[in-house]
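Pasting as-is:
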Amino acid sequence: MPSSLRTLFQLDPEVIFLNHGSFGACPLPVFQVYQDWQRRLERQPVAFLGREISFHLRRARQALGGYLNADPDDLVFIPNATHGVNIIAHSLELKPGDEILTTDHEYGACDYTWEFYCSQAGARYRRQPLPLHPTDEEVLEQLSLGINPATRLIFLSHLTSPTALCLPVEAACRLAQQAGVLVLMDGAHAPGQVDLDLTALGPDFYTGNCHKWMLSPKGAGFLYARRSLQPLVRPLVVSWGYHATSETTTGSSFVDYLEWTGTHDPSAALSVPAAIQFMRDQDWGKVRRTCQQILNQSLPHINQIASLSSVYPDSPDLHQQMAVIHLPASTDLPVLKRRLYDEYRIEIPLIDWNGNKLARISFQGYNTPGDLDALAQALKDLLPTASLITHADSGF
C-alpha cells in the first residue's frame, strides 16, 4: 500500500484516525471535484438547478450503476442510508399485527426508525438474537425462526455497525423470497469495502452510503428498488417530481419522486463518479485487501499487549476493513474514549453491545501499522486504570 495515500487525505496529521466507519473521509482529489460542482452551482443557480441538474444527476447515476451493477433507473441519490431506511419504512403502510424481522446487530438510528413506524401502526419490530460473531448458518436459522405469516419485511445490515460483522445477505435474500417476504438491506458500510453486485445479490430494496468507504463527500447515499416494487415507494417529501413535465421527467417516476425534494446542494452526489474514478486510479481493490491483511495480522498483537481475549479465535477472515476487539467488562467507556483522544490523539468508537464492551477499529488506506501499534500501547497503559476511575473523575 503506497505511503503517499496518507497525503491524499485531509485528516489532521496529529490524530490517529481509526474511525473511518463513522463518517468516512473524502480524499483531496474528490473533494476538489466536489468544490468545483459547488462553484458551478453558485455561478448560475437557476440554470444549474432549473435546467441542467437532471442531466448531471443521470450521468452520476450511470457511473454509480456501473459500479454497483444496477440499472441507473433503479437507483436514486439520497443523503444517506438511514434516509433510505426511512423511505421504505414510510412506504410499507404497516398495519396492526404486522412484523418487521431483523437481528440485534443493527444500527441504532435504523432501529429507532422501525420502532417509530411500528409503534405508530401497532406493528412489531422483532429483533432475533445472535452471538457476537455467529456463523452464517446461525444467522439464517434465526431469521427462519423469526419468519411467520405476519412478517412483512426482513431488514438486515450487509456489514453491521456495532459488531463489524459481514452478514450472509445473498442467502438471506433467497430465504426471504422463498418465504414471500420483502427484504431491505442496509449497506451503510458495504459499498467500497466489499464488492457489491446488486443484480447478483437480488434484494428488493438496498440503501447504501457513498460517503463512507466509497470516499465520496458527505451527503451522498443511494436507494435501490427492484423495478416491480418501485410503485410501492413513497417519497418522504413530495415536490415537483410528483407531476414531472416532459421537460423535467427522468423517465422513471421512482427517480422523479425521490430525486427532487426542494432546493438542496447536489454536489456530493455529482462527485460520486470522481470517487469511483479515484478508487480505480489507486487500484482500490488491492488497497482494501492490504488493509484487511494488516488488520488481521495486528489484532492478535493488540489483544496480547492489552491482555484482551480475541473476538476472532477461529478465523481472522470474519471481518473486512472494520473489526472489533473486546474490552474488559469493568471498563468505563466514556472515560477511556476521552483519555484515548486527549492523551494519545486516537479517534476510535467504543461500543457497549449486549453486555459486550468493544472497540471498533477501521483501517483505511491512509492508516499504517504504526497506528495499530499506538492503539495497542495506549490500551496497555490505560486499561488498568480505566475501570478504577470514578464518575466524579469523569465529570459526572
